[in-house]
Amino acid sequence: MRKVLFGLLAALPIGLFVVTLAQFSVNVPWFDDFDPFPDFLRKWVNSTDLSTQLELIFQPNNEHRMIFGKLGALVYYWLFGELNFTFLHWLGFGFTLGTLAIFIAVFRQQKIEWEYLIPLLFFLFQLQYHMTSLWAITALQHLPVIFFVSLTCYLLSKKQFGWAVLTGFCANFAMSNGIFVWPAGIIILFLQGRYKLLLTWLVAGVVAVFLYFRGMQTLNNESSFGYFLQHPHQTFFGFFTFIGGLFDFFPDRSTIERSVLPTIGGMGMIAILLVALVKVWKLFRERTLAHQETLLFLLGVSTYLLANASIIAFLRPRFGYFVMIVSNYKIYPALFLMVIYGFYLVLNRQQTKKTHFKVALVVGIGIWGLSLLHYWPTINERRKTLLAGAFNQEHNGFGLGFTPNTPAAQYIDSLMKFNVQREIYHYPTTLIPVVQSLQKPINFPIQPQLEYQAEGLLIREETYSFTPEMNGALYVSLQSNRRQYLFKLEPTLYTGRNWLKRYATGTTLLIPYAAVEPGTYQMQFVLVRDDKPQSTHYQPIEWKKKA
C-alpha cells in the first residue's frame, strides 16, 4: 500500500516534469550545441575509417568530452537518419530517472519506508535547472555524469570494485567534473579499509584523468588564479551560493539580491551536513562504518558534490558571479539536498526521522512550487524565442546564439546548411502559420514605440503582455525584396516588490543593427492568441548599419 501511495505522489512532480519536456522541448540547437552534435555528425558522415570515427567520439569540445551526448546523437542517426535535439533532451531525462532509481535502491536497502522518499522527488524534479533539461549539451553533460558518479558510489558501497572502475571511467569521460569520481571512490574504499584496492583505484584514476586531458587545448584557467588572488571573497562566498542554489527565489533581481538567500541557504546546508558527519565520525571510531553501505554511498556522492562546488567557486567567478546561480548548475544543489536528507534518514531514530521528513517535505514542495511559478513562464517564452531564432537561422544565416556576420555565425550557417541538404536535420515548421498570416494583414490596435539606440532598434509595445498560452506571442516581421526577418518581442520583466510576479505590462525587443541587412523593409506585427495569428501593416523603415 505504501509503495502504491509513493507511486501516486511521485506522479505529480515527475508527471509535471514530463509534461514540461513534452510541451517545451523543441528540435532546435542553441549556442554550444553545434560543435558536439551537428558538426560531429557532419564529420562522422564524411569520415571513412573506424579510427577517425572513434577519434571524433572522444574529441574534446571546449573543456569537455561529450561522449554520451555524441553516442546518443549517433544512435538516433543510425536508427532514423536524422539529428533530433528533442530526443537528446529526453535522453538526459532518462539519466535523471536512473539517478533517482539509484537513490531509491540505496534507501530501500536500508529498509526506509517508501513515504520517506517522497521529498527526493520534489528536490529532483523541479524546474530550476531547466537549462539543463531543455538544452542538449548541458543535458548530456551534467545528467550523465551525476548518474555515473552515483552508480559508481553505489557499486563501491556494495563492494563491486570491477564494475565500479568501469562506471568510474564513464563518469570521468561524461564531462570534466567527472574526474571527481575518483576522490569520491577514495573516501569509500578508505572507510571500508580496502587499501590494496584503493591503490588500484588511484592508478585507474590517474590513467583516466591523464587520458581525459590528453590532447586537450589550454582551458585558459590560469586567468582564474589571478582573478582569485584579486577577489578571494568571491570564491569563499561562491562556494556557499553554489551549494544553496535552489534557494534562488528572486530570479529576475540583480545578482547581489539573488545571491543572498542561496548563500545563507548554502551555509545552512553545510552546517547541517557537518552535524551529520559528526555522527558518522563516531561510527568510524567505533569501527562500524565500513559495513554501512548507505552511509558510504552518501559520503562518496557528497565528496563529489563538495569537490565540484569548490572547483566551480574557484574557476568560474571570473565570468561573473551570476554563474554560481545559473540554471545549468542547479541540478547539483538538488542532489546535495537529497544527500543531506539521506544522512538524516539513516542516522536518526524513527521519531526524529518523522520530523526530518516533515521539514524536508515542506522545503521540497516549496522549492518545487516556486520553481513552477518562476520558471514555467520563462520556459514557455524561451521555446517561442528559439523557434523565431530557428526561422532566422534557416532564412538569414543567424539566430541561434551567435552575432550575425561573424566567423562563428558563418561557420554555423554552413554547418546547418550541410545538415539540411543531407536531410540530417529538419527545421521546425511551427511558425509557418505566423509567416502565412503576413499575406493577409488586418487592422488590430497596436501602438509600438520605435527608438533608435546606439546598439540597435528598440521596439516597445505596451498593449500586449505575457500570456500563458503555448503559442501566444507578439512578433515583428521585417520584409524586403531580398530578406524576411522574424523576431519575437519579449514580455517586460517585473521588478517591483511582489517577488511572486514574473512579468509586468508590455513587451520589448532590441534588434541589433548588425542583425539586419541594410535596405528598405516593410514592418509588420503578428499577434498570436488562441493559436490564431493575425498580422497588421505598420510602416516601411529604412534599415542602416548604425543609428
Characterise the protein shown here.
The chain has 19 helices and eight strands. It has 547 residues and is of the alpha+beta class. Strand 3 (473-479) and strand 4 form a beta hairpin. Helix 9 (161-172) runs parallel beside helix 11 (195-213). It is globular. 43% of the residues are buried. The mean pLDDT is 92.
Produce the secondary structure layout.
Layout: H1 2-24, H2 35-46, H3 50-58, H4 67-80, H5 85-109, H6 118-124, H7 130-133, H8 136-157, H9 161-172, H10 181-192, H11 195-213, H12 222-230, H13 232-243, H14 255-285, H15 293-315, H16 331-347, H17 350-396, H18 407-421, H19 432-437, E1 449-452, E2 456-461, E3 473-479, E4 484-488, E5 490-493, E6 503-512, E7 519-529, E8 532-543
Antiparallel strand pairs: 1-2, 2-6, 3-4, 3-7, 5-6, 7-8
Helix pairs in contact: 2-4, 2-18, 4-5, 5-8, 6-16, 6-17, 8-9, 8-10, 8-15, 9-11, 10-11, 10-15, 12-13, 13-14, 13-15, 14-16, 15-16, 16-17
Question: What keywords describe this structure?
Answer:
19 helices, four-stranded antiparallel beta sheet, globular, alpha+beta, 547 residues
Report strand order across the widest sheet: 1-2-6-5
Rounded Rg: 25 Å
Number of helices: 19
Structural class: alpha+beta
Helix content: 55-70%
Shape, principal axes of CA atoms: globular
Tell me, rounded to a whole number, the average pLDDT: 92
Q: How much β-strand is present in the residues? A: 5-15%
Task: Encode the helix/strand succession as letters.
Answer: HHHHHHHHHHHHHHHHHHHEEEEEEEE
Please tally the β strands and state the result. 8
What distance lies between the first and last C-alpha atoms, to the nearest angstrom? Answer: 69 Å
| Unreliable segments of 5+ consecutive residues | none
Main beta-sheet strand count, sense and barrel state: 4 strands, antiparallel
